[in-house]
Specification:
The protein is of the alpha+beta class. The protein is built from nine helices and 15 strands. Helix 6 (261-286) crosses helix 8 (319-332).
């Protein structure tokens, strides 16, 4: 199925909610590319620190594999007069998570949705998560489809990992820095609250809030891993305030029943996606802050790039040609002149009000 149609199918099932990670096994340490901490220091880690570092890596890599996933989101506390809690949103999907890169102190994981609708299998690229040990900076969301690189002090990054999550076409979504702990036999990563864009389940249906302030905990379990979210839905127009609180639990349960369609897609398109990631990385590193020229759900950005990947797998275009077209799309919809947050939010609200069903306003 074409990427645009696939996303509509996914949206109906609520499957584009996941933002988590985990895999199994622990590769040997490689420090060939470690700009945030000198190579010599990583090699000569004290024994206790190295043991903890290896535990952390094992937990991150424990997020790769094949999973049956359930997404359960429930608003819990209304914090605005007159606001009524929305109904819980429960959905599910099948996903594979593959290790894109492992440099020891940097691990990248890619999630791919594999769905059966009727008698047909549909596959599409989902979120990517990048983990970096003791990062000197982290890419964070600052509202209104804009991001900035935030410096992390030596004290605040010591022994910790950043996680930066990327959208389906590899634009950023959000980032945070937190510590992995392994107390009482439980491995979990717990960062402080950071802002993130609206999830697609709300971006495409609601106009009453502008960002999420989220605590995003990842826990390795005997059956796979779980992502627990504590979300405050923020209104960033007028007097900034919290609209409502929400709890989300995304459970990834290992399975061996997912067909190989996801790996077929990834093997056919991974070189293309490597070139797309490189384009986004060049933009990130060229400026302190950048954003999208469009507000709200960035469908005009991700739809053509996902379709280019589909065309590669179908043999309709080459990787090089598709990468060139993707570069043009990224250039069209990105800017380093992000302007004021209030202006970005006002534009987003205007677009959302025009597009949203009357019942959601």
């Amino acid at each position: 199925m074409a990427a645009r149609s696939m996303l509509k199918v996914v949206a109906k099932t609520g499957a584009i909610l996941a933002v988590a990670l985990l895999a199994f096994g622990c590769a040997s340490i490689s420090v060939s590319d470690a700009p945030d901490r000198p190579k010599a220091e990583l090699i000569s880690m004290p024994a206790a620190e190295k043991a903890k570092f290896e535990q952390d890596r094992k937990a991150i890599l424990a997020m790769a594999g094949d999973f049956d996933v359930t997404f359960d989101f429930r608003e819990t506390v209304s914090l605005t007069p007159g606001y009524e809690l929305k109904k819980p949103k429960l959905s599910g999907a099948d996903e594979i998570v593959r290790v894109v890169e492992d440099r020891g102190n940097f691990i990248s994981l890619q999630q791919i949705l594999v769905m059966k609708v009727g008698d047909e299998m549909y596959v599409t690229k989902h979120w990517r998560q990048d983990w970096k040990y003791e990062p000197a900076e982290v890419l964070v969301f600052i509202g209104g489809n804009a991001w900035e690189r935030r410096a992390v002090s030596q004290k605040d990054r010591a022994g910790k990992w950043s996680q930066v999550v990327y959208q389906v076409e590899d634009s950023p979504r959000y980032g945070a820095v937190g510590a992995w702990t392994h107390d009482h036999g439980v491995s979990q990563w717990s960062p402080p609250a950071e802002m993130r864009p609206l999830p697609r389940r709300d971006m495409t249906t609601r106009t009453d809030y502008d960002a999420v302030l989220a605590v995003n905990r990842h826990t390795i379990t005997p059956f796979g891993w779980v992502q627990e979210e504590e979300n405050s839905k923020l209104v960033l127009r007028g007097d900034h305030h919290v609209l409502v609180r929400e709890i989300g639990v995304n459970s990834y349960k290992r399975t061996n029943t997912i067909p190989k369609d996801g790996d077929d897609y990834w093997n056919a398109t991974k070189d293309f996606w490597a070139l797309v990631r490189a384009d986004w990385n060049r933009l990130e590193q060229s400026t302190r802050g950048f954003g999208l020229t469009i507000q709200g759900e960035p469908e005009p950005l991700y739809t053509p790039i996902l379709e280019l990947a589909d065309n590669i797998q179908a043999g309709k275009t080459t990787t090089a040609a598709a990468a060139g077209e993707a570069r043009k799309v990224i250039a069209q919809f990105t800017t380093t002149d992000i302007g004021a947050l209030s202006d970005r939010i006002a534009k987003s609200v205007k677009i959302a009000d025009a597009a949203a069903p009357a019942a959601s306003r």
